Prior knowledge:
Oligomer: heterodimer
Number of helices of chain A: 0
Radius of gyration of chain A: 14 Å
Radius of gyration of chain B: 14 Å
Number of strands of chain B: 10
Amino acid sequence: ETGVTQTPRHLVMGMTNKKSLKCEQHLGHNAMYWYKQSAKKPLELMFVYNFKEQTENNSVPSRFSPECPNSSHLFLHLHTLQPEDSALYLCASSPAAQGRSNQPQHFGDGTRLSIL
Amino acid sequence: GESVGLHLPTLSVQEGDNSIINCAYSNSASDYFIWYKQESGKGPQFIIDIRSNMDKRQGQRVTVLLNKTVKHLSLQIAATQPGDSAVYFCAENMDTGRRALTFGSGTRLQVQP
């Protein structure tokens, strides 16, 4: 049990479909993140939310649309994706940073996304 | 869940031996570092962290060493076990209030029984 739960674990979709990835954390954290892990690159940050507010968008294409309704839930809405978007999408959470304190991020097990 | 397809450096050790996994970082302003372990089909799992005001930190069977002069981080695993086989990532963060991590490309550890 990681404390960060992602659903679905696997998703296959066509380029014209619309789907959503879900992440839920049970750790009482206030910051949540989306990362992309693809076969040919290191882990890449996509979005950061802190207290439900988006604080970072790492130049992610608009076909990826995040939503954070509360500090425990994070969604990634997908539409008209491309084959190169096939990857493992990881959600993470951490306590909101206070002052000079850093805390580790805790990851879910990811959603393996395949675009046909 | 690991970076399959990425040309990862691989460290192969015998069960019971000590393992040392290295990581170089480039940002001299980074002052918080984390090691993660990622097993097949799973997300990265936190192992140990260290702040830049320290040069060594120990956990259970693991030790992280930080050399800020040469911007080098290492993870030492004592008495390596088959269950330690995984991809290991170092990550860094600058203490500017930005809470995002920058990850290295990882090292695959293979433990031979």
